[in-house]
C-alpha cells in the first residue's frame, strides 16, 4: 500500500503528467494565436484613409440666350384730364395726369404730384386743387390781337360794349377770337379778391409785365351745388366789371353803374342793391334762384378792368330765411361763395386788405359738387 501512494504524487492528483503537459502546450499556442489576431486587427485599424481619385467631368460651355426685344416707343404726352365724376373723400384731392412721361416737380411713376395750396394765388392755381369742384379761368387781353400785338382798342365805353357783345353771344369765347388769350389757365374754388393792383391779374396768368394789358377780362366757369335746398342770391362787387350767371341766366351785374348800363340789360331789383359799400364802390345784390340739395348748377363769372389801376371781385352768397350777423353799416356779414376751404395764406392776405365785417371767410356751407 505504501508504494501505491507514492506513485500518485504529481502536479494534479489523479491526472497523468503527460495530459497536463499537453494542456499547457495547447494553452500556450492559443495565447500566441490570439495575440497575433489582436495585433493584426489593431494594425489594420491604424491604416490611413486614402480618398478615391477625383472623377473627371466634362465641362459644357454655357451660351447666353439671345432674346429679341422690341423697342418700346416713347408714349405720347397726354392732355389734361379733368373728371367731374370723381368724388372727393375727406378733401383728398386726386392728381392730374397732364404729362405721363415727365411729371411735375419730381412726379412718381409718371403722375404729377399733388399741387401745393401754397402756390395758389387770389386768382387761382395753375393746377386743379379740387377736381370737379373748381372753376377754370381764361384770361383775355383786349389791348392785344390774337397774335399778341398791340391793337387800337380804346379804353372806357368801347371796352364795356365789347364785353356786352360777349354776354349777348351767350358767353361764347369765339366772340373774343380776335383778341389775345393767355395759354395758361387758372383754377380756383372761390372769388374774393379785395382791392388790388390790376397788373397782378395778367401776371398770375403768366403774362410778362412789359406786355401791354391795360384792358382785360377773366372768364371762369364750373359747377356748384348746395348742401341744403333753398333760395339763394349773390352779393358781388367788381372793379370795374363783375357779371355772374347761373344755369345760363344772368343773376348779378356788379361794378360801375356805367359798366352795367353798357354791358347788359340786367337791372337789380333788390332793396339792398347798391346800398352797402365794399371796397371802392357799392355792392350789387343779385336775383334769387332755386337750388336743390346735391343737384349741380352751372356757374360762370366774368370780371375785368379798364384803365390799369385797381381791380376787385368779391362774391358772397345769401340763403333766404337765414339770419346773419351785421357789420357796423348794417349790412349782413355773408359767407364767401366757395366750393372748398380757402387756404390759410390767402385768408391772411384777404384779411389784411379787407375792412372788418365785409364778409365771412370761413363760415357757411361749401358749395362743392363732389
UniProtKB/TrEMBL annotation:
Residues 169-333 form the PA14 domain. Keywords: Membrane, Transmembrane, Transmembrane helix. InterPro entries: PA14/GLEYA (IPR037524). It comes from the Bacteria. The chain crosses the membrane at residues 20-42. This is PA14 domain-containing protein. It comes from Tichowtungia aerotolerans.
